[in-house]
Amino acid sequence: MDVAPSFHPAPNNSFSTTLPYLQIYWDSTSLGALKTCPRYYFYSIIQGFTSYHQSVHLTFGLLYHSSLEYYDHMKFSGLDHDAALIATVRKVLIDTWDAKLNRAIEMDSDTKSRSGLLRTVIWYLDQFKDDTLKTVKLDNGKPAIELSFRFACGYKSTATDEDFFLCGHFDKYADMDDKYL
Questions:
Q1: 111/170 same-domain check
Q2: What count of Cα atoms within 13 Å lies in the side-chain half-sphere of residue 118?
Q3: What is the side-by-side order of every strand in the sheet holding 145-156?
Q4: Listed residues 91, 108, 131: the one ending a domain
Q5: By the 8 A CB rule, do 69 and 77 touch?
Q6: Consecutive H or E run containing 137
Q7: What is the spatial distance between Cα 15 and Cα 29, in angstroms, rounded to a whole number?
């Protein structure tokens, strides 16, 4: 007898252990889903259902964001703009290559494509190469890039007496040169 596999989403640490459907840790994704539609929130956040295919817009945005983050790391490590740009372009080329098919990944868009991503990254980094903002160095010596935060927002669940938290990420924490203040 063939039995269809049951769906068991990965555990989500954003929820209460006392009351499983009570979300304690909230970020922009879960708040946005709830504002869109409570049923959409239930299926996407609580049940963990996602689309089989990732949106070309999301794919492009994630690749673009990771490229800029990589450039910031390269600059922080001491590379000049040109060397950091070359390293970043190399990363984009690797990240957009499908090794199994031995070809560039397909994004099903005329503008949001591999070449469009390369042009966008190079244009942006060249446009802002003389940025006066300098990435802050943390006490542990690492750059202040992609920092997560969470804080109690002052509300508690009346059902479980647990605090609610707001969570997110900073792309970069930077300091501006005093001469521009």
A1: no
A2: 15
A3: 25-26, 163-172, 145-156
A4: 131
A5: no
A6: none
A7: 14
Same domain, 124 and 78: yes
Q: Residue 157: which domain range? A: 25-50+143-180
Residue among 148, 129, 137 at smallest CA distance from 174: 137
| pLDDT reported for residue 34 | 96
- CB atoms under 10 Å from CB of 107, counted, come to 20
Is the residue at 2 inside a domain?
Answer: no
| Residue type at 76 in one-letter notation | F
- pTM for this entry: 0.81
Rounded to an integer, what distance in angstroms lies between the CA atom of residue 151 and that of residue 141? 24
Residue 71 resides in a domain:
yes
Question: For the chain, first and last CA: distance in Å?
Answer: 73
**Encoded tokens for 15:** 């929820």
Cβ-based neighbour number of residue 81 at 10 Å: 16
**Using one digit for the tens of pLDDT, what is the confidence trace for 61-92?**
999 999 999 999 999 999 999 999 999 999 99
Q: Are 154 and 112 in contact (CB under 8 A)?
A: no
> Is 122 in the same domain as 156?
no
Decide if pLDDT at 16 tops 90.
yes
Residue 138: phi and psi, rounded to 5, are -75, 165
Are 64 and 126 contained in the same domain?
yes
107 lies in a domain? yes
